[in-house]
Design brief:
heterodimer; A: 349 residues; mainly alpha; ABC transporter involved in vitamin B12 uptake, BtuC; two-stranded antiparallel sheet; 14 helices; 70% helix; B: 259 residues; alpha/beta; Rossmann fold; six-stranded mixed sheet; 9 helices
């Protein structure tokens, strides 16, 4: 792209005119942002109450817990790995907290701490197995997914005699923990779940870590080319294990929000959610092959998810249509991402 | 002048397979030592020993006159031996400057607020690459958008910037066209002129001869000799590399077929 015309500005003449536009569309989250706008406008038109503070409180609430997970899963995917146990992890951690608080009589905060340690352990195990064996994380975490699913049901039935745990409301420390993880904020007469704040906080923190810190640089590198990263001295195994632990901690956060909000947890909860997290991350611009993607994009992907799921309810349609919508959205996102990535990678010489 | 690296009758076996046998050569500062040989001649094994990926079984490896044995590539790197692999040099989807500093990122702040110093990173990378004679349009562009030769040069500039004393280039021209190969050889010469000891691995004597000071020819794990440039011609080097007499015999046979 050599231009012979002289340009007065001091920037390199070989940068094509319109470089700003090029650079903008080269960002992974742009497709998701456009998609979110389309969905927002669409449901605002077809459903009267969609674009009101009450409506927003509903779809933001739906997006929030999904968004927390999507952000962590996006980091892991950029690092080149999958975690299929992420969905069931939200139930496992909630069950550990609930059983310890109700059956063992622990203070809720202590129960939360124990389930956090449990989550860190499972995440580290996932990561260690993947880097140690070199097997695809898809298979390794499918194994932990199934194992956790079995443990959730088996242990819950052993301890409580049923497949659900409830009664955490009576446990010591429930009030303060509930305030932190599951209270309502009233803005302008409308109540918003505090999980929305957690979502924003997690997204901001993860975005900062990803583009502004060494760990973020290493995340891109281990996902983009692990052998190259290793050759220049990046601790590949440690980075990957930490990413698996991050996903597990996000699962713990969502599990804690859920158990404190609904005070009951079903042992079979969370199954199938892992794919929603991956879908949100992909809609947000993550490549399935790793090394490329955006945390903000994943958060927007979750927002699209929440808006569509609730928008269909607002529009009084049968929720059966949601899956159709989701499928189209996913295919559209992958196609758009592909095009944008080619643009970003295009040889400019 | 004391050699930077002295390879003294080094040998390496993988189980019952002898990959390298009694190979000797030296690498001097400001000079290029070329390692030539056909596939399977033992070039990679020798390089892996120098780069700390494998350890030698017999013989001695001396760095600055001291006996050394590197436990890991990181240790070799810390001792000033940088290796640029043909295809492992960079992460294609990451930007030029992030690749440049990968593994040794400049940071500001402390504790949990420690973060990348992006301005320093970008500018240092731009300058270091410009010093090698490549004028990059934009250090924010993904390395994957660079040509193969430019990619090698980014890796070379990185090694020079981080204070490598010895630069090992593993088949840098193997996947490149004629013009790009010339470009890479020019940057190699730049690194040499800055006083680095360069080890160039190649199976192309036409690439090795113009830049090399010394030629180590390997065949089937053994050394055919380490020749100073004054002692060998390009034609002789080519003949040695191709297996010398064997090739003549083959030519004779081929002539027999056609005639």
């Amino acid at each position: 792209m050599t231009t012979t015309t002289e340009r007065p500005d001091p920037t390199d003449e070989r940068l094509a005119p319109g470089g700003v536009v090029n650079r903008l569309v080269a960002r992974p989250e742009v497709g998701a942002l456009l998609g979110a706008l389309v969905v927002l406008v669409f449901f605002t038109v077809v459903a009267d109450t969609f674009f009101t503070t009450g409506g927003a409180a509903t779809w933001l609430d739906d997006s929030a817990t999904l968004g927390i997970m999507a952000v962590a899963v996006a980091l892991l995917m950029i690092g080149g790995e999958f975690d299929l146990s992420a969905g069931v992890m939200t139930a496992s951690t909630a069950l550990v907290t609930a059983i310890l608080a109700t059956e063992a009589g622990l203070n809720v905060w202590l129960a939360l701490l124990v389930s956090l340690v449990f989550a860190l352990g499972v995440g580290a195990l996932n990561g260690w197995l993947v880097v140690r064996t070199g097997l695809p994380s898809f298979i390794v975490t499918l194994g932990t997914f199934l194992a956790l699913q079995g443990l959730n049901l088996g242990v819950t039935r052993l301890v409580t005699g049923s497949v659900q745990v409830s009664g955490i409301r009576a446990a010591e420390g429930y009030e303060s923990a509930g305030f932190v993880f599951a209270s309502w904020l009233t803005i302008d007469g409308t109540s918003f779940q505090i999980s929305i704040l957690w979502w924003l906080g997690v997204t901001g923190l993860a975005a900062w870590v990803l583009v502004r810190t060494r760990f973020g640089n290493w995340t891109f590198a281990v996902g983009g080319s692990a052998p190259s990263a290793r050759a220049v001295g990046v601790p590949v195994a440690r980075t990957k294990i930490l990413l698996f632990m991050t996903t597990a901690v996000a699962g713990w956060l969502v599990g804690s929000i859920n158990i404190l909000r609904f005070t009951t947890v079903q042992a079979n909860q969370g199954i199938g959610l892992e794919f929603q997290f991956i879908i949100a991350a992909v809609i947000g611009g993550c490549l399935l092959t790793g090394g490329y993607g955006s945390v903000i994009g994943a958060a927007i992907g979750a927002l699209i998810f929440g808006m569509a799921r609730q928008g269909i309810v607002f529009a009084d349609w049968n929720s059966d249509w949601f899956m159709l919508f989701l499928g189209i959205m996913l295919l559209g996102a992958v196609l758009v991402n592909n095009t944008f990535r080619r643009r970003a990678e295009r040889v400019r010489s | 002048m004391n050699p930077l690296i002295e390879v003294d009758r080094i040998g390496k076996s993988y189980g019952s397979v002898v990959a390298l046998r009694e190979v000797s050569t030296v690498v001097n500062a400001g000079e290029v030592t070329c390692v030539l040989g056909d596939n399977g001649a033992g070039k990679s094994t020798l390089i892996k020993i120098l780069a700390g990926v494998h350890q030698h079984d017999t013989g001695r490896l001396r760095l600055d006159g001291q006996d050394v044995r590197f436990a890991s590539p990181r240790e070799a790197l810390d001792r000033g031996i940088a290796t640029v692999h043909q295809d492992l040099a960079v992460v294609p989807l990451m930007s030029v400057w992030r690749n440049f500093f990968l593994g040794s990122e400049p940071t500001v702040g402390a504790g949990p607020l420690r973060r990348l110093d992006r301005r320093t990173g970008r500018e240092t990378a731009r300058r270091a690459i410009a010093d090698m004679g490549i004028d990059l349009r934009d250090v924010e562009q993904p390395v994957g958008t660079l040509s193969g030769g430019e990619r090698q040069c980014v890796a070379i500039a990185r090694a020079v910037h981080f204070g490598a004393k010895v630069l090992i280039l593993d088949e840098p021209t193997a996947a490149l066209g004629v013009k790009q190969s010339g470009v890479v050889l020019r940057y190699l010469a730049q690194a040499r002129d800055r006083g680095l000891g360069v080890v160039l691995i190649t199976h192309n004597p036409h690439h090795a001869y113009p830049v090399g000071n010394r030629f180590l020819v390997l065949t089937r794990g053994a050394s055919l000799g380490s020749f100073e440039k004054a002692d060998i011609t390009l034609a002789e080097l080519t003949r040695q590399m191709a297996g010398g007499e064997e090739l003549e015999a083959l030519e004779h046979e081929l002539r027999g077929v056609s005639g």
